[in-house]
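Dear colleague,

Thank you for sharing your sequence with our group. We've completed the structure prediction you requested, and as agreed, I am returning the results in plain text so they can be pasted directly into your records. Please verify that the sequence below matches your submission; if there's any discrepancy, let me know and we will rerun it promptly.
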Amino acid sequence: MENFRKESDLLGELDVPVNAYYGVQTQRAINNFKISGQLLSSYPEFIKGLAFVKKAAAKTNYELGLLDENLYFKIAEVCDELVNGELHEQFPVDMIQGGAGTSINMNANEVIANRVLEKLGKNKGEYEFCSPNDHINLSQSTNDAYPTAIKMGLLQMNDALVEKLEKIVGAFRAKGEEFQDVIKMGRTQLQDAVPMTMGQEFEAFAATLEEDISKLNNNANLFVEVNMGATAIGTGINAPVGYATLCAKNLAQLTGFPVISAPNLVEATPDTGSYVIYSSAMKRLAVKLSKICNDLRLLSSGPRAGLSEINLPPMQPGSSIMPGKVNPVIPEVVNQVCFKVFGNDLTVTFAAEAGQLQLNVMEPVLSHAIMENIHFLGNALDTLREKCIVGITANRDVCLNMVKHSIGIVTALNPYIGYKQSTAIAKEALETGKSVYNLVLEKELLSQERLDEILDPKNMLKPHNK
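Please find the predicted C-alpha coordinates below.
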Protein backbone atom coordinates (compact mmCIF):
# COMPACT_ATOMS: atom_id res chain seq x y z
CA MET A 1 0.00 0.00 0.00
CA GLU A 2 1.33 3.48 -0.88
CA ASN A 3 2.31 5.32 2.34
CA PHE A 4 2.39 8.76 0.78
CA ARG A 5 0.31 10.99 -1.43
CA LYS A 6 1.74 13.68 -3.65
CA GLU A 7 0.75 17.31 -3.20
CA SER A 8 2.11 20.35 -4.99
CA ASP A 9 2.66 24.04 -4.31
CA LEU A 10 4.72 26.90 -5.69
CA LEU A 11 7.95 24.95 -5.27
CA GLY A 12 6.73 21.72 -6.84
CA GLU A 13 5.58 18.30 -5.64
CA LEU A 14 6.22 16.78 -2.23
CA ASP A 15 5.32 13.49 -0.57
CA VAL A 16 2.87 13.80 2.34
CA PRO A 17 1.91 10.86 4.58
CA VAL A 18 -1.23 9.37 3.07
CA ASN A 19 -3.22 9.48 6.32
CA ALA A 20 -2.12 12.96 7.34
CA TYR A 21 -4.75 15.69 7.42
CA TYR A 22 -2.06 18.31 6.92
CA GLY A 23 -0.69 18.96 3.43
CA VAL A 24 2.29 20.07 1.41
CA GLN A 25 3.04 23.40 3.11
CA THR A 26 2.91 21.81 6.55
CA GLN A 27 5.23 19.08 5.32
CA ARG A 28 7.71 21.67 4.06
CA ALA A 29 7.66 23.32 7.51
CA ILE A 30 8.30 19.92 9.16
CA ASN A 31 11.31 19.47 6.89
CA ASN A 32 12.63 23.02 7.26
CA PHE A 33 12.14 23.92 10.92
CA LYS A 34 13.63 21.39 13.30
CA ILE A 35 14.39 24.02 15.91
CA SER A 36 12.85 23.90 19.39
CA GLY A 37 11.22 20.49 19.46
CA GLN A 38 8.13 22.21 20.86
CA LEU A 39 5.38 21.72 18.34
CA LEU A 40 2.13 23.54 17.77
CA SER A 41 0.41 20.44 19.18
CA SER A 42 2.11 21.24 22.53
CA TYR A 43 -0.17 24.27 22.91
CA PRO A 44 -3.81 23.17 22.59
CA GLU A 45 -5.11 26.66 23.36
CA PHE A 46 -3.31 27.97 20.29
CA ILE A 47 -4.94 25.29 18.12
CA LYS A 48 -8.29 26.20 19.61
CA GLY A 49 -7.54 29.84 18.84
CA LEU A 50 -6.88 28.92 15.21
CA ALA A 51 -10.13 26.97 15.11
CA PHE A 52 -12.11 29.91 16.51
CA VAL A 53 -10.56 32.24 13.93
CA LYS A 54 -11.26 29.91 11.01
CA LYS A 55 -14.84 29.31 12.12
CA ALA A 56 -15.47 33.04 12.60
CA ALA A 57 -13.99 33.72 9.16
CA ALA A 58 -16.12 31.02 7.54
CA LYS A 59 -19.26 32.34 9.24
CA THR A 60 -18.47 35.87 8.08
CA ASN A 61 -17.80 34.73 4.52
CA TYR A 62 -21.07 32.79 4.52
CA GLU A 63 -23.04 35.76 5.85
CA LEU A 64 -21.49 38.01 3.20
CA GLY A 65 -22.38 35.54 0.45
CA LEU A 66 -18.85 34.35 -0.34
CA LEU A 67 -19.15 30.77 0.94
CA ASP A 68 -21.95 28.30 0.21
CA GLU A 69 -23.99 26.96 3.07
CA ASN A 70 -22.91 23.31 2.89
CA LEU A 71 -19.23 24.12 2.89
CA TYR A 72 -19.65 26.62 5.71
CA PHE A 73 -21.39 24.10 7.94
CA LYS A 74 -18.75 21.46 7.25
CA ILE A 75 -15.95 23.91 8.06
CA ALA A 76 -17.77 24.89 11.25
CA GLU A 77 -18.11 21.22 12.26
CA VAL A 78 -14.39 20.61 11.81
CA CYS A 79 -13.49 23.76 13.75
CA ASP A 80 -15.70 22.54 16.59
CA GLU A 81 -13.80 19.24 16.55
CA LEU A 82 -10.53 21.12 16.95
CA VAL A 83 -11.95 23.19 19.80
CA ASN A 84 -12.98 19.92 21.48
CA GLY A 85 -9.40 18.62 21.29
CA GLU A 86 -9.65 16.38 18.24
CA LEU A 87 -6.94 16.12 15.56
CA HIS A 88 -4.40 18.07 17.59
CA GLU A 89 -1.72 15.55 16.66
CA GLN A 90 -2.08 16.84 13.11
CA PHE A 91 -0.28 20.08 14.07
CA PRO A 92 3.39 19.04 13.96
CA VAL A 93 4.94 22.38 13.00
CA ASP A 94 7.73 23.71 15.24
CA MET A 95 6.65 26.78 17.20
CA ILE A 96 9.77 28.65 16.13
CA GLN A 97 9.90 29.09 12.37
CA GLY A 98 10.56 31.54 9.56
CA GLY A 99 7.75 32.96 7.48
CA ALA A 100 5.89 35.10 10.04
CA GLY A 101 3.55 32.24 10.98
CA THR A 102 2.58 31.15 7.45
CA SER A 103 3.37 27.53 8.25
CA ILE A 104 1.08 27.51 11.26
CA ASN A 105 -1.72 29.23 9.37
CA MET A 106 -1.41 26.78 6.50
CA ASN A 107 -1.23 23.85 8.91
CA ALA A 108 -4.66 24.88 10.18
CA ASN A 109 -5.98 25.53 6.68
CA GLU A 110 -4.83 22.15 5.39
CA VAL A 111 -6.09 20.12 8.36
CA ILE A 112 -9.52 21.75 8.22
CA ALA A 113 -9.74 21.39 4.44
CA ASN A 114 -8.79 17.71 4.41
CA ARG A 115 -11.15 16.89 7.27
CA VAL A 116 -13.93 18.69 5.36
CA LEU A 117 -13.07 16.66 2.26
CA GLU A 118 -13.39 13.50 4.34
CA LYS A 119 -16.81 14.60 5.51
CA LEU A 120 -17.77 15.27 1.87
CA GLY A 121 -16.71 11.76 0.89
CA LYS A 122 -13.67 12.98 -1.01
CA ASN A 123 -10.00 12.02 -0.79
CA LYS A 124 -7.43 14.06 1.06
CA GLY A 125 -5.79 16.45 -1.32
CA GLU A 126 -8.79 16.87 -3.65
CA TYR A 127 -8.66 20.58 -3.04
CA GLU A 128 -10.88 21.51 -5.95
CA PHE A 129 -13.79 20.64 -3.63
CA CYS A 130 -12.43 22.39 -0.53
CA SER A 131 -9.21 24.37 -0.77
CA PRO A 132 -6.94 25.40 2.13
CA ASN A 133 -6.36 28.74 0.40
CA ASP A 134 -9.54 29.48 -1.53
CA HIS A 135 -12.05 28.35 1.10
CA ILE A 136 -10.48 27.98 4.58
CA ASN A 137 -8.27 31.06 4.12
CA LEU A 138 -10.93 33.05 2.27
CA SER A 139 -10.80 36.82 3.00
CA GLN A 140 -7.75 36.28 5.20
CA SER A 141 -3.98 36.41 5.26
CA THR A 142 -1.54 34.82 7.68
CA ASN A 143 -0.89 38.39 8.77
CA ASP A 144 -4.33 38.79 10.31
CA ALA A 145 -5.44 35.20 11.02
CA TYR A 146 -2.22 34.14 12.75
CA PRO A 147 -1.86 36.99 15.30
CA THR A 148 -5.58 36.84 16.01
CA ALA A 149 -5.29 33.12 16.75
CA ILE A 150 -2.34 33.83 19.04
CA LYS A 151 -4.43 36.34 20.97
CA MET A 152 -7.38 33.95 21.30
CA GLY A 153 -4.97 31.32 22.59
CA LEU A 154 -3.37 33.71 25.06
CA LEU A 155 -6.74 34.80 26.43
CA GLN A 156 -7.55 31.18 27.21
CA MET A 157 -4.12 30.57 28.71
CA ASN A 158 -4.35 33.69 30.86
CA ASP A 159 -7.62 32.49 32.36
CA ALA A 160 -5.94 29.21 33.36
CA LEU A 161 -2.88 30.99 34.77
CA VAL A 162 -4.97 33.37 36.84
CA GLU A 163 -6.93 30.44 38.27
CA LYS A 164 -3.68 28.81 39.41
CA LEU A 165 -2.50 32.12 40.85
CA GLU A 166 -5.72 32.51 42.82
CA LYS A 167 -5.21 29.05 44.31
CA ILE A 168 -1.69 29.76 45.56
CA VAL A 169 -2.84 33.09 46.99
CA GLY A 170 -5.45 31.13 48.93
CA ALA A 171 -2.82 28.67 50.15
CA PHE A 172 -0.55 31.45 51.45
CA ARG A 173 -3.53 33.17 53.06
CA ALA A 174 -4.50 29.95 54.84
CA LYS A 175 -0.98 29.67 56.22
CA GLY A 176 -1.17 33.28 57.32
CA GLU A 177 -4.22 32.42 59.41
CA GLU A 178 -2.59 29.25 60.75
CA PHE A 179 0.54 31.15 61.83
CA GLN A 180 -1.16 34.33 63.11
CA ASP A 181 0.01 33.72 66.70
CA VAL A 182 3.61 32.72 65.90
CA ILE A 183 5.87 35.54 67.15
CA LYS A 184 9.16 35.92 65.24
CA MET A 185 11.76 38.48 64.27
CA GLY A 186 11.35 40.49 61.13
CA ARG A 187 14.55 41.21 59.23
CA THR A 188 15.86 43.91 56.93
CA GLN A 189 19.11 43.48 55.00
CA LEU A 190 19.30 39.99 56.59
CA GLN A 191 19.74 41.64 60.01
CA ASP A 192 17.35 41.54 62.95
CA ALA A 193 14.76 44.32 62.72
CA VAL A 194 11.62 44.20 64.87
CA PRO A 195 9.15 41.49 65.89
CA MET A 196 6.23 40.42 63.76
CA THR A 197 4.10 37.31 63.40
CA MET A 198 4.69 34.59 60.90
CA GLY A 199 1.06 35.08 59.99
CA GLN A 200 1.82 38.62 58.88
CA GLU A 201 4.72 37.33 56.82
CA PHE A 202 2.66 34.73 54.98
CA GLU A 203 -0.29 37.08 54.51
CA ALA A 204 2.17 39.47 52.86
CA PHE A 205 3.15 36.67 50.47
CA ALA A 206 -0.52 36.24 49.61
CA ALA A 207 -1.09 39.98 49.16
CA THR A 208 1.89 40.54 46.88
CA LEU A 209 0.83 37.74 44.53
CA GLU A 210 -2.83 38.76 44.66
CA GLU A 211 -1.92 42.13 43.16
CA ASP A 212 -0.78 40.38 39.99
CA ILE A 213 -4.18 38.84 39.28
CA SER A 214 -5.55 42.21 38.19
CA LYS A 215 -2.30 43.07 36.38
CA LEU A 216 -2.45 39.91 34.27
CA ASN A 217 -6.16 40.33 33.51
CA ASN A 218 -5.86 44.01 32.65
CA ASN A 219 -2.95 43.42 30.32
CA ALA A 220 -4.59 40.38 28.72
CA ASN A 221 -7.58 42.60 27.92
CA LEU A 222 -5.44 44.22 25.22
CA PHE A 223 -5.61 40.96 23.28
CA VAL A 224 -9.31 41.45 22.50
CA GLU A 225 -8.43 44.03 19.83
CA VAL A 226 -7.72 42.07 16.62
CA ASN A 227 -6.84 42.83 13.01
CA MET A 228 -9.05 40.32 11.18
CA GLY A 229 -9.91 41.85 7.83
CA ALA A 230 -6.52 43.52 7.55
CA THR A 231 -5.35 40.71 5.25
CA ALA A 232 -1.78 41.34 4.08
CA ILE A 233 -0.80 44.74 5.48
CA GLY A 234 -3.97 46.28 6.88
CA THR A 235 -5.50 47.65 3.69
CA GLY A 236 -8.05 44.84 3.55
CA ILE A 237 -7.19 43.69 0.05
CA ASN A 238 -9.25 40.60 -0.98
CA ALA A 239 -11.66 41.10 1.93
CA PRO A 240 -15.20 42.38 1.29
CA VAL A 241 -16.64 45.56 2.72
CA GLY A 242 -17.78 45.06 6.32
CA TYR A 243 -15.73 41.91 6.82
CA ALA A 244 -13.46 43.22 9.62
CA THR A 245 -16.25 44.38 11.93
CA LEU A 246 -18.48 41.37 11.29
CA CYS A 247 -15.66 38.88 11.76
CA ALA A 248 -14.70 40.43 15.09
CA LYS A 249 -18.34 40.23 16.18
CA ASN A 250 -18.55 36.56 15.19
CA LEU A 251 -15.29 35.81 16.96
CA ALA A 252 -16.61 37.42 20.13
CA GLN A 253 -19.74 35.26 19.98
CA LEU A 254 -17.72 32.08 19.47
CA THR A 255 -15.08 32.67 22.15
CA GLY A 256 -17.00 34.56 24.80
CA PHE A 257 -14.24 37.19 24.85
CA PRO A 258 -15.18 40.83 24.07
CA VAL A 259 -13.32 40.83 20.76
CA ILE A 260 -13.32 44.08 18.77
CA SER A 261 -11.87 45.16 15.46
CA ALA A 262 -8.81 47.40 15.70
CA PRO A 263 -9.65 50.98 14.68
CA ASN A 264 -6.59 51.19 12.42
CA LEU A 265 -5.76 47.88 10.72
CA VAL A 266 -2.56 49.17 9.13
CA GLU A 267 -1.29 50.09 12.58
CA ALA A 268 -2.57 46.91 14.21
CA THR A 269 -0.95 44.48 11.78
CA PRO A 270 2.71 45.08 12.72
CA ASP A 271 1.97 46.19 16.30
CA THR A 272 3.08 43.82 19.06
CA GLY A 273 2.70 46.17 22.01
CA SER A 274 0.07 44.01 23.71
CA TYR A 275 2.51 41.09 23.83
CA VAL A 276 5.20 43.27 25.39
CA ILE A 277 3.00 44.56 28.19
CA TYR A 278 1.51 41.15 28.96
CA SER A 279 4.99 39.62 29.07
CA SER A 280 6.03 42.35 31.49
CA ALA A 281 3.16 41.39 33.80
CA MET A 282 4.41 37.79 33.82
CA LYS A 283 7.93 39.01 34.55
CA ARG A 284 6.59 41.05 37.46
CA LEU A 285 4.84 37.95 38.81
CA ALA A 286 8.01 35.89 38.36
CA VAL A 287 10.12 38.49 40.20
CA LYS A 288 7.76 38.35 43.18
CA LEU A 289 7.47 34.57 43.10
CA SER A 290 11.24 34.15 42.99
CA LYS A 291 11.66 36.51 45.95
CA ILE A 292 9.16 34.49 47.94
CA CYS A 293 11.03 31.29 47.13
CA ASN A 294 14.26 32.92 48.27
CA ASP A 295 12.53 33.76 51.56
CA LEU A 296 11.22 30.22 52.00
CA ARG A 297 14.70 28.82 51.48
CA LEU A 298 16.17 31.26 54.01
CA LEU A 299 13.45 30.70 56.61
CA SER A 300 13.87 26.92 56.37
CA SER A 301 17.70 26.99 56.31
CA GLY A 302 19.47 24.69 58.72
CA PRO A 303 18.01 22.73 60.36
CA ARG A 304 20.66 23.27 63.06
CA ALA A 305 22.94 25.96 61.66
CA GLY A 306 20.40 28.18 59.88
CA LEU A 307 17.25 30.13 60.70
CA SER A 308 15.06 27.04 60.89
CA GLU A 309 11.91 29.05 61.54
CA ILE A 310 9.83 26.90 59.21
CA ASN A 311 9.94 23.35 57.92
CA LEU A 312 9.32 22.65 54.24
CA PRO A 313 7.85 19.27 53.32
CA PRO A 314 10.75 16.86 52.62
CA MET A 315 10.44 15.83 48.99
CA GLN A 316 13.58 13.80 48.26
CA PRO A 317 17.06 13.00 49.66
CA GLY A 318 19.32 15.98 49.16
CA SER A 319 22.75 14.51 48.68
CA SER A 320 24.58 11.51 47.26
CA ILE A 321 27.32 11.92 49.89
CA MET A 322 25.79 13.65 52.95
CA PRO A 323 23.38 11.32 54.81
CA GLY A 324 20.22 12.93 56.15
CA LYS A 325 20.46 16.08 54.05
CA VAL A 326 17.16 17.34 52.62
CA ASN A 327 17.15 20.31 50.25
CA PRO A 328 14.42 22.88 49.46
CA VAL A 329 13.99 21.45 45.97
CA ILE A 330 10.53 22.88 45.27
CA PRO A 331 11.43 26.54 45.87
CA GLU A 332 14.64 25.87 43.94
CA VAL A 333 12.83 24.64 40.86
CA VAL A 334 10.40 27.56 40.99
CA ASN A 335 13.34 29.98 41.18
CA GLN A 336 14.66 28.41 37.99
CA VAL A 337 11.30 28.77 36.25
CA CYS A 338 11.33 32.45 37.16
CA PHE A 339 14.78 32.87 35.62
CA LYS A 340 13.42 31.29 32.43
CA VAL A 341 10.55 33.80 32.47
CA PHE A 342 13.02 36.68 32.77
CA GLY A 343 14.92 35.43 29.73
CA ASN A 344 11.79 34.87 27.66
CA ASP A 345 10.61 38.38 28.47
CA LEU A 346 13.84 39.71 26.96
CA THR A 347 13.17 37.54 23.90
CA VAL A 348 9.74 39.14 23.59
CA THR A 349 11.31 42.59 23.81
CA PHE A 350 13.81 41.89 21.04
CA ALA A 351 11.21 40.19 18.84
CA ALA A 352 8.74 43.04 19.24
CA GLU A 353 11.43 45.63 18.43
CA ALA A 354 12.39 43.70 15.27
CA GLY A 355 9.18 44.58 13.43
CA GLN A 356 9.79 46.33 10.14
CA LEU A 357 7.40 48.47 8.15
CA GLN A 358 3.99 46.77 7.77
CA LEU A 359 4.72 43.44 9.51
CA ASN A 360 6.60 41.87 12.39
CA VAL A 361 7.97 38.58 11.10
CA MET A 362 9.30 37.58 14.54
CA GLU A 363 5.89 36.74 15.99
CA PRO A 364 6.61 32.98 16.09
CA VAL A 365 9.40 33.29 18.66
CA LEU A 366 7.50 36.07 20.44
CA SER A 367 4.33 34.00 20.81
CA HIS A 368 6.31 30.90 21.74
CA ALA A 369 8.16 32.78 24.50
CA ILE A 370 4.91 34.07 26.01
CA MET A 371 3.12 30.74 25.78
CA GLU A 372 6.09 28.92 27.25
CA ASN A 373 6.16 31.39 30.14
CA ILE A 374 2.46 30.87 30.86
CA HIS A 375 2.94 27.11 30.73
CA PHE A 376 6.02 27.17 32.98
CA LEU A 377 4.53 29.62 35.47
CA GLY A 378 1.27 27.69 35.73
CA ASN A 379 3.11 24.44 36.44
CA ALA A 380 5.41 26.19 38.92
CA LEU A 381 2.48 27.74 40.82
CA ASP A 382 0.75 24.37 41.13
CA THR A 383 3.97 22.61 42.15
CA LEU A 384 4.83 25.21 44.79
CA ARG A 385 1.34 25.14 46.24
CA GLU A 386 0.80 21.37 46.21
CA LYS A 387 4.28 20.19 47.17
CA CYS A 388 5.44 22.98 49.45
CA ILE A 389 3.11 25.68 50.74
CA VAL A 390 0.29 23.51 52.06
CA GLY A 391 2.77 21.36 54.03
CA ILE A 392 4.83 24.11 55.70
CA THR A 393 5.02 23.97 59.50
CA ALA A 394 6.36 26.55 61.95
CA ASN A 395 9.07 26.02 64.57
CA ARG A 396 7.35 28.15 67.17
CA ASP A 397 9.91 27.78 69.97
CA VAL A 398 12.79 28.69 67.66
CA CYS A 399 10.98 31.82 66.53
CA LEU A 400 10.10 32.96 70.04
CA ASN A 401 13.62 32.32 71.35
CA MET A 402 15.07 34.50 68.58
CA VAL A 403 12.75 37.34 69.54
CA LYS A 404 13.69 37.15 73.22
CA HIS A 405 17.41 37.27 72.49
CA SER A 406 17.34 39.80 69.66
CA ILE A 407 19.01 43.19 69.86
CA GLY A 408 16.34 44.38 67.43
CA ILE A 409 13.72 44.81 70.13
CA VAL A 410 15.62 47.86 71.37
CA THR A 411 13.87 49.76 68.56
CA ALA A 412 10.73 49.70 70.70
CA LEU A 413 12.54 51.78 73.35
CA ASN A 414 13.19 54.77 71.06
CA PRO A 415 10.00 56.65 72.02
CA TYR A 416 10.76 56.17 75.73
CA ILE A 417 14.51 56.62 76.23
CA GLY A 418 15.52 58.24 72.93
CA TYR A 419 17.47 57.07 69.91
CA LYS A 420 20.90 57.90 71.39
CA GLN A 421 20.34 55.97 74.59
CA SER A 422 18.79 53.07 72.67
CA THR A 423 21.84 52.95 70.40
CA ALA A 424 24.17 52.80 73.42
CA ILE A 425 22.14 49.96 74.92
CA ALA A 426 22.25 48.02 71.64
CA LYS A 427 26.01 48.54 71.30
CA GLU A 428 26.72 47.39 74.83
CA ALA A 429 24.47 44.37 74.41
CA LEU A 430 26.38 43.34 71.31
CA GLU A 431 29.78 43.84 72.98
CA THR A 432 29.00 42.15 76.29
CA GLY A 433 26.42 39.55 75.34
CA LYS A 434 24.04 40.95 77.92
CA SER A 435 20.37 41.24 77.07
CA VAL A 436 18.73 44.53 76.24
CA TYR A 437 16.28 43.84 79.01
CA ASN A 438 18.89 43.51 81.75
CA LEU A 439 20.92 46.52 80.60
CA VAL A 440 17.89 48.81 80.74
CA LEU A 441 17.16 47.66 84.31
CA GLU A 442 20.82 47.97 85.37
CA LYS A 443 20.92 51.58 84.18
CA GLU A 444 17.52 52.26 85.81
CA LEU A 445 16.19 53.74 82.59
CA LEU A 446 12.74 52.21 83.04
CA SER A 447 10.90 50.27 85.71
CA GLN A 448 10.62 46.54 85.23
CA GLU A 449 6.84 46.78 84.96
CA ARG A 450 7.04 49.46 82.25
CA LEU A 451 9.83 47.63 80.44
CA ASP A 452 7.84 44.41 80.39
CA GLU A 453 4.91 46.23 78.90
CA ILE A 454 6.98 47.97 76.19
CA LEU A 455 9.02 44.91 75.21
CA ASP A 456 6.13 42.50 75.07
CA PRO A 457 6.44 41.37 71.41
CA LYS A 458 2.68 41.45 71.03
CA ASN A 459 2.74 45.20 71.66
CA MET A 460 5.18 45.69 68.79
CA LEU A 461 3.10 44.08 66.06
CA LYS A 462 0.96 47.10 65.15
CA PRO A 463 0.80 50.85 65.72
CA HIS A 464 -0.07 52.06 69.22
CA ASN A 465 0.13 55.20 71.33
CA LYS A 466 2.73 55.73 74.07
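Summary note from our side: The chain has a mean pLDDT of 93.

Kind regards,
the structure core
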